[in-house]
C-alpha cells in the first residue's frame, strides 16, 4: 500500500519539476507515475512482493511522454523509503551518460528530492594498473588475451607511449582510469591490452587495490541511492550470480529503459561458442606459457604438479579438436548448408539436436576442458593466496603477472567448456529447444569452423535471474507492444502475466503526419521487380530540397537502389557503410543547416534510436514491411519450435516482429510535438494481405493516403 507520505512526496516532486522546467503537466506522465507507484507499493519493507502479484510493471510510453521524469521522481523516493537501491539500466553507454550528466542533475535540482547517484561500468571500461605495470616492465610478451583471435596484440612502438601517458596521468591525478574520460583516442587493441575482466582480476588481494579505478568506482556504488548502468552490465552482473558488480537483486529495484531490448540482450549473455582453429592455437600457446610458469614458480612447490599435468590435458584437448574438425567437415559435405552472412555458410541442427557423430566427441572435450578449468582454478587460487604471503619466495610483481595470465586461461577454458557441455547432450526433450549451429568461415581462403549454442527465448533466463529475485522491476520503452498486444514481449521475456501492463499514448498529434502507400504493381517477394519499382518511384516521391530518411531491410537492395539512382540523386545520398553512422548523421545535419536537402539510405540501425527532429527529417521512406532476414539461426530455431507445436510461426513470430520494426521505423518522423511530415511505405502487402491490415491497424493514427491502385 502506498503511504500518504509517499504519495505527497511524489506529487510534490512532480509539480516542482514541471514548474522548475517551465513544462506543462502531461497526462501520459501522470498515468506512468501512478502505474509505477502502485506497482512498487507492493514491495514490503523487508523483502519482495508476493509471487502472485509481483512488483513488476511493463509500460509502453509513446515518444514525447517524458518517461525519464516519470520513473525517476516515482522510483527514487520509493526505493529510499524501502531501503533499496534503484538501478536504472539504459540500452547504451551513450544514453547512460546522458541520464547521469543531464537528466538526473536536472531532476535533483528541480524536484526537491535529495538523492545520490553514480555511473556504473564494467571492468573493461577501466584501466588495470597491474596490467599497465606489467606492460611497461616488459612482461607483456607472455600474456595471452582472452580471445586472441578477436584482439590482436598492438605494436609496442604504438602502445607503450600510450601506456606511459596513462600511468603519468594517473599519478598526477589528471585521469581516473575510465576509458570514456581519457582525453585522446585509444584503439581497441591498445585498450584491451591495458584492461581486464573478472577472470583475471585478483580483487581485494591485488597489491594495486587501493589505486584501482574499477574498485574505487565500485565502492561508490555501495553508497549511491541511484546506480545508472546499461543492460549489458546488469545482465553480466546477474549472470555472475547478482551482487558481483551492482547491488544484489533482492536489494534492488530495476528500471529498464528501452526495455524492448532486454530479451535479446539476455540471450547474448547466455550463449556459448568455440572457434575450432583459434582454440587449437590457443591451447598450443598456453602449453608453452605453462612450461614457463612451471619454471618461474618453482618456489611454490604445491603448484608444480598441476602445472606439469595441465599441458598434457591441453595436448589431448588439441587432438580431440582435430577429430571434431574432421567430423564437422563431413557434416558440410554432400548437402547444401543454409546460407549465412557474407561468404560464410551455416549449418543449423533441426530442433537443436546434436548429430550422433558429434555428441560423444563433445562429451570427451567437455571432460577435458572441465579438467583444464579445475586445474587452472586451483593454480589461480594458490597464486591469489601467494599475493598475501610475505615469504612466498617470489617477487609480488611476478606472482601478480602470472595470476593475470592464469586467470585469462581460466576464463577462456570455462567459456569453451560451456560450449562443449551444450554439444555433449542430444538436445532431445529440451523445452524450448536451443539453437545449435556451425558456421564455416572463409577468411582469405583459409577455412575454419565456429560452433555456437544459444537459448531461443530469454524467458527461463530472466525468470531465474531477474523476475524471481528482484525486489521490483519497471520495464519501459516507446515500443514494447506488437499488434496492440504485449504477447510478444511476454513470450520472449517470460514476464509473469500477473505483472502490470500499461500503454501510455504519446502526446504527439499524429494527424500532423501522413502515411502514404502508393500504387505498385509488384510485391517485395519479387526482389528484382520491387527494386526496379523503387528506383522508378523515388525520384518522384522525394523532394530534393528537404531531409529524407530511406530505410531498407536488405543491404543488397539498398546498394542496388543507390546504383540505380546515383546519376539522378547521388550527390544528395548518404549511404550506410560509406561512413560511420555518426559521420553520416553529422553530414546530413550539416547539409540541412546549410539550407539544402539530404537523403540518408540506411538499414535497421537507422530505424531505431536515430533522432532527427524538425527539418532534419520531413520524410521517412520504408522500402518494405521489415520482416527479419531469415538467416538468424536463433530466429529459425524459434520458428521451427512453434511450427512443431502445430502453431503458425509466421503469424505468431514474424508478423509481430515486423509490426514492431515498422512502428520503430515510422517513429523516426515525429520527434517533437511540433514536427510534421510524411511516411511512405513501398509495400502494397500492407493493404492486400490479412496480416498487412493487422500491422496497419497497429500503427499510430497518422493521416492516410492509400492509393486505390496500391492493392492491385
TrEMBL record:
Which top EC class is given? Answer: isomerase
Explain the purpose of this protein: DNA-dependent ATPase and 5'-3' DNA helicase. Unwinds D-loops, R-loops, forked DNA and G-quadruplex DNA.
- Provide the residue positions that the database annotates as binding [4Fe-4S] cluster: 128, 201, 206, 212
Q: Which cofactor does it need?
A: [4Fe-4S] cluster
Q: What name does UniProt use for this protein?
A: ATP-dependent DNA helicase DinG
The gene it comes from is dinG
Catalysed reaction, written as an equation: ATP + H2O = ADP + phosphate + H(+)
Entry keyword annotation includes Isomerase: yes
UniProt lists the family membership as follows: Belongs to the helicase family. DinG subfamily. Type 1 sub-subfamily.
Q: Which GO terms describe its molecular function?
A: 4 iron, 4 sulfur cluster binding; 5'-3' DNA helicase activity; ATP binding; ATP hydrolysis activity; DNA binding; DNA/RNA helicase activity; metal ion binding
Q: Which domain of life is it from?
A: Bacteria
Enzyme Commission identifier(s):
5.6.2.3
Can you supply a Gene Ontology BP term from the record?
A: SOS response
Q: Which Pfam families match?
A: DEAD_2 (PF06733), Helicase_C_2 (PF13307)
Annotated cofactor note = Binds 1 [4Fe-4S] cluster.
Q: Domain (Helicase ATP-binding): give its ranges.
A: 15-308
Q: For this UniProt record, give its keywords in alphabetical order, as a comma-separated list.
A: 4Fe-4S, ATP-binding, DNA-binding, Helicase, Hydrolase, Iron, Iron-sulfur, Isomerase, Metal-binding, Nucleotide-binding
Under Gene3D superfamilies, the record lists: P-loop containing nucleotide triphosphate hydrolases
Amino acid at each position: 500500500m502506498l503511504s500518504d507520505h509517499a504519495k505527497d512526496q511524489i506529487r510534490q516532486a512532480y509539480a516542482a519539476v514541471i514548474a522548475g522546467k517551465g513544462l506543462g503537466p502531461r497526462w501520459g506522465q501522470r498515468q506512468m507515475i501512478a502505474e509505477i507507484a502502485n506497482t512498487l507499493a507492493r514491495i514490503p519493507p523487508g523483502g519482495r512482493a508476493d509471487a502472485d502479484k509481483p512488483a513488476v510493471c511493463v509500460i509502453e510510453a509513446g515518444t514525447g511522454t517524458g518517461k525519464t521524469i516519470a520513473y525517476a521522481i516515482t522510483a527514487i523516493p520509493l526505493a529510499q523509503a524501502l531501503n533499496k537501491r534503484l538501478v536504472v539500466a539504459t540500452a547504451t553507454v551513450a544514453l547512460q551518460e546522458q541520464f547521469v550528466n543531464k537528466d538526473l542533475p536536472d531532476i535533483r535540482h528541480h524536484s526537491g528530492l535529495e538523492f545520490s547517484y553514480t555511473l556504473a561500468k564494467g571492468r573493461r571500461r577501466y584501466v588495470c594498473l597491474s596490467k599497465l605495470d606489467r606492460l611497461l616492465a616488459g612482461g607483456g610478451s607472455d600474456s595471452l588475451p582472452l580471445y586472441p583471435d578477436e584482439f590482436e596484440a598492438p605494436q609496442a612502438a604504438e602502445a607503450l607511449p600510450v601506456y606511459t601517458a596513462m600511468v603519468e596521468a594517473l599519478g598526477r591525478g589528471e585521469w581516473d582510469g575510465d576509458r570514456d574520460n581519457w582525453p585522446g583516442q585509444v584503439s581497441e587493441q591498445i585498450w584491451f591490452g591495458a584492461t581486464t575482466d573478472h577472470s583475471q582480476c585478483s580483487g581485494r588481494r591485488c597489491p594495486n587495490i587501493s589505486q584501482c579505478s574499477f574498485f574505487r568506482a565500485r565502492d561508490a556504488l555501495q553508497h549511491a541511492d541511484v546506480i545508472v548502468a546499461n543492460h549489458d552490465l546488469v545482465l553480466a552482473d546477474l549472470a555472475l550470480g547478482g551482487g558481483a558488480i551492482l547491488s544484489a537483486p533482492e536489494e534492488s529495484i530495476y528500471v529498464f529503459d528501452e526495455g524492448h531490448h532486454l530479451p535479446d540482450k539476455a540471450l547474448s549473455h547466455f550463449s556459448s561458442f568455440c572457434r575450432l582453429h583459434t582454440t587449437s592455437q590457443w591451447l598450443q600457446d598456453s602449453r608453452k606459457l605453462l612450461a614457463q610458469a612451471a619454471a618461474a614458480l618453482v618456489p611454490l612447490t604445491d603448484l608444480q604438479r598441476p602445472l606439469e599435468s595441465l599441458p598434457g590435458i591441453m595436448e589431448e584437448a588439441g587432438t580431440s579438436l582435430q577429430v571434431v574438425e574432421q567430423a564437422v567437415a563431413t557434416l558440410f559435405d554432400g548437402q547444401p548448408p543454409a546460407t549465412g552472412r557474407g561468404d560464410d555458410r551455416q549449418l543449423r541442427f533441426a530442433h537443436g539436436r546434436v548429430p550422433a557423430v558429434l555428441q560423444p566427441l563433445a562429451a570427451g572435450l567437455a571432460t577435458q576442458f572441465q579438467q583444464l578449468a579445475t586445474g587452472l582454478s586451483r593454480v589461480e587460487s594458490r597464486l591469489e593466496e601467494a599475493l598475501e604471503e610475505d615469504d612466498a619466495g617470489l617477487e609480488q610483481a611476478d606472482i601478480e603477472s602470472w595470476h593475470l595470465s592464469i586467470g585469462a586461461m581460466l576464463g577462456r577454458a570455462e567459456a569453451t567448456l560451456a560450449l562443449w557441455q551444450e554439444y555433449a547432450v542430444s538436445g532431445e526433450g529440451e523445452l524450448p529447444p536451443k539453437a545449435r549451429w556451425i558456421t564455416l568461415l572463409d577468411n582469405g581462403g583459409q577455412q575454419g569452423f565456429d560452433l555456437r549454442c544459444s537459448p531461443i527465448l530469454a524467458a527461463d533466463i530472466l525468470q531465474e535471474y531477474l523476475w524471481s529475485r528482484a525486489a521490483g522491476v519497471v520495464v519501459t520503452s516507446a515500443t514494447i507492444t506488437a499488434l496492440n498486444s504485449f504477447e510478444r514481449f511476454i513470450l520472449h521475456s517470460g514476464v509473469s502475466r500477473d505483472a502490470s501492463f500499461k500503454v501510455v499514448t504519446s502526446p504527439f498529434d499524429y494527424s500532423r503526419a501522413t502515411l502514404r502507400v502508393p500504387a505498385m504493381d509488384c510485391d517485395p517477394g519479387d526482389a528484382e521487380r520491387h527494386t526496379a519499382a523503387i528506383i522508378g518511384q523515388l525520384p518522384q516521391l522525394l523532394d530534393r530540397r528537404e531531409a529524407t530518411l530511406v530505410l531498407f531491410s536488405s543491404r543488397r537492395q539498398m546498394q542496388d537502389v543507390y546504383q540505380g539512382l546515383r546519376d539522378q540523386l547521388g550527390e544528395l545520398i548518404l549511404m550506410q557503410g560509406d561512413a560511420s553512422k555518426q559521420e553520416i548523421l553529422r553530414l546530413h545535419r550539416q547539409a540541412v543547416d546549410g539550407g539544402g536537402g539530404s537523403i540518408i539510405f540506411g538499414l535497421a540501425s537507422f530505424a531505431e534510436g536515430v533522432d532527427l527532429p524538425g527539418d532534419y527529417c520531413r520524410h521517412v521512406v520504408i522500402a518494405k514491411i521489415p520482416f527479419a532476414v531469415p538467416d538468424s539461426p536463433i530466429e529459425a530455431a524459434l520458428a521451427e519450435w512453434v511450427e512443431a507445436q502445430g502453431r503458425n510461426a509466421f503469424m505468431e513470430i514474424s508478423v509481430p516482429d515486423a509490426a514492431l520494426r515498422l512502428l520503430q521505423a515510422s517513429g523516426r518522423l515525429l520527434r517533437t510535438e511540433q514536427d510534421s511530415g510524411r511516411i511512405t511505405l513501398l509495400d502494397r502487402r500492407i493493404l492486400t494481405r490479412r496480416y498487412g491490415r493487422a500491422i496497419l491497424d497497429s500503427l499510430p493514427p497518422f493521416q492516410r493516403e492509400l492509393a486505390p491502385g496500391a492493392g492491385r
